[in-house]
Fold NADP-dependent oxidoreductase domain-containing protein.
Amino acid sequence: MAKLDINSKYRMNSGYEIPILGYGIYQTPADIAEDVVAHALATGYRHVDSATAYRNEAPSAAGIKRAGIPREQIFFTSKVPPRAINYKDAAKCVDETLSKTGLGYVDLYLLHAPYGGKQGRLGAWKALAEAVEAGKVRSIGVSNYGVHHLEELETYIKEVEEKEGKGKAGVLSVNQVELHPWLARPDIVQWCEKRGVLLEAYSPLVRSTRMDDERLVALSKKHNKTPAHILLRWSLQKKFVPLPKSVTKSRIEENANIYDFELSAEDMKSLETGEYSPCTWDPTTSKD
Ligand SMILES: NC(=O)c1ccc[n+]([C@@H]2O[C@H](COP(=O)([O-])OP(=O)(O)OC[C@H]3O[C@@H](n4cnc5c(N)ncnc54)[C@H](OP(=O)(O)O)[C@@H]3O)[C@@H](O)[C@H]2O)c1
């Protein structure tokens, strides 16, 4: 694979670029978010994954400003919360993020989960597409979408495009889902890859619950790297965009130190567990 470094980016279906390593801030308390985000940016991360539901958009934006890096070099994501997946609330949510953060625009806005029923989901998507037209948001996507949710959205986009023209119903750039060796989601990954939809890997460290797994420990010894490095490298080599979270400064640095080694095809194979073991919620299977 092409040599990656901390400045590597992928181009999304929207035409905009996304840094391939993100810094996740779920469960990062608001009173420390400014400090840890500024530390992550000083370490070299340029991509911050927030959400309305995390209640730390404003202090994260303060951390971005404190870091003193030009706005156009930063990639900031937020999400419409699960309880607001409908047209009106999604539109309001984007405006609130803009006023809370003062960032001028949001790089990526996602629907946090496929809730709200079909009408709610498609309405919320329409609101995001309009936010792009209005210059409030650059790229849009979804999170926790299973293949059946993705197909519903694709059908809607095609129907609108037939009537109104290409790009008129928004461009799907990202699906953010839990992804790691114990949840490799081949069905969702294949669907997205076929359409150039990038996969963002959340909980890429499996919330630190598998660090003593023997396969990880063996690779860790082989490469003289930590189990966290092995997990993040697995994610990068799958062409995902991993979003490791840490509030610990030494770990923020550790998690960015993943560009000086490569897992072999055999190493990658040793991490094929075939398991379907989410470490958190799993809305991808929701049926309504
Ligand atoms: N869209 C969604 O529904 C969704 C759901 C979950 C997560 N996410 C996104 O994905 C991000 C990451 O997921 P996550 O927070 O669930 O889990 P994660 O990144 O897999 O794991 C975070 C946990 O691992 C610990 N940790 C971090 N670096 C470590 C290291 N090098 N060695 C050992 N332990 C380490 C952290 O501890 P400390 O913080 O104490 O250092 C924290 O307890 C979130 O912050 C969020 O941005 C999205």
In short: Residues 9-210+240-257 form a domain with the TIM Barrel fold (CATH 3.20.20.100). The CA atoms of residues 150 and 191 lie 8 Å apart.
